[in-house]
Amino acid sequence: MKKGPATPKGFRDIEPSQAKARREAVNKIAGVLESYGFVPLETPSIEFAQTLKGKYGEEEKLIYEFTDRGGRELALRFDLTVPLARYIANNLGLLNPTFSRYQIGQIFRGENPQRGRYRESTQFDFDTVGSTSEEEDAKIIGVAIKAIREIGLGKAQMAINDRQNFKDLSVEDIRAIDKIYKVGKENTEARLLSIVENSKPTQDLEKIFEILENNYGLKEGVDFFFDPTLARGLDYYTGSIFELKPTGKPEDLSIGGGGRYDNLIGVFAGRDIPAVGFSFGLDRIVELT
Q1: Domain boundaries defined on the chain
Q2: pLDDT class for 115, splitting at 50, 70, 90?
């Protein structure tokens, strides 16, 4: 019988058996990443609210904001990507010419809790900063797939698209496409469905697919696939976008996602600094293993 205080909705204790499984997954992923040259980094759980605001589109409403005793407007971090952008802007000397890091940390989002999705969750994030080359996009995707295979999810596949396929669409249209499997095709505009059905891999994606096959030994249709419905809701993506599907179906709930974001760091640094990255949803992964 529970006699102590309850935890707030969307927050929970991690029992010993689950904590052990999480640690094992982290160790396996970190081992793969370090073998490809990624180094660890840690950033604060709290940022100035202004650092986070204006980066997430409609998702911004989910940021936990508060004012401290000194009247400073602060926020719990929403993801690990924007804090990385702030860090790079303050440490430009690390770009020699690129910087690859990974980070494990708690993120906070004021959303409706559901299976595998909580208001506090753990992300395992890794990124390469400083290069526009498709080699780096392929590296991020390839390493993510190899890491998930190391964990034991043999059926998972990476759904891949390019935000350039939506360059002539409004933000609202992009968000509607991103929700096709959530709301159903019957509730999506025919105009948007036509765009999706006629969409093809861009030249950049074709290059990425080629690198994945030649350099990483991965196969289209087995390890990754082109998904014209994939749009990714966050506004900072500029090129390739990808989500990891546990059974290789586009309608699966993702167990990780990422993409290229060439403009975000420049907001803080005052100059163009390209980047591409991926984030594992550790809670969902552990539930599947």
Answers
A1: 16-288
A2: low
Give the whole-angstrom CA distance, residue 220 versus residue 203.
16
Gap between the Cα atoms of 84 and 90, Å rounded: 10
Q: What 3-state DSSP class applies to 282?
A: helix
What pLDDT digit, counting tens, does each position of 8-24 carry?
A: 999 999 999 999 999 99
Which amino acid appears at position 129 of this protein? V
As a whole number of angstroms, the distance between CA 232 and CA 229 comes to 9
| Residue 267, φ and ψ in degrees, nearest 5 | -60, -35
Q: Write down the residue that tokens 């167990």 correspond to.
A: 255
* C-alpha torsion angle, residues 81, 87, 88, 94 (rounded to 10): -120
> What letter represents residue 167's amino acid?
K
Structure tokens at 267: 């907001």
Asked if the 16-288 domain carries CATH number 3.30.930.10, the reply is yes
Cβ-proximal residues to 157 (8 Å cutoff; 6+ apart), any chain: 222, 223, 224, 225, 244, 245, 248
pTM of the model: 0.90
CA distances from 68 to 61, 62, 113, 204, 253 (A): 20, 19, 26, 46, 36
DSSP class of residue 185 equals G
Dist CA 71 CA 29 (whole Å)? 40
Q: What is the pLDDT of residues 133-162, one digit of tens each?
A: 999 999 999 999 999 999 999 999 999 999
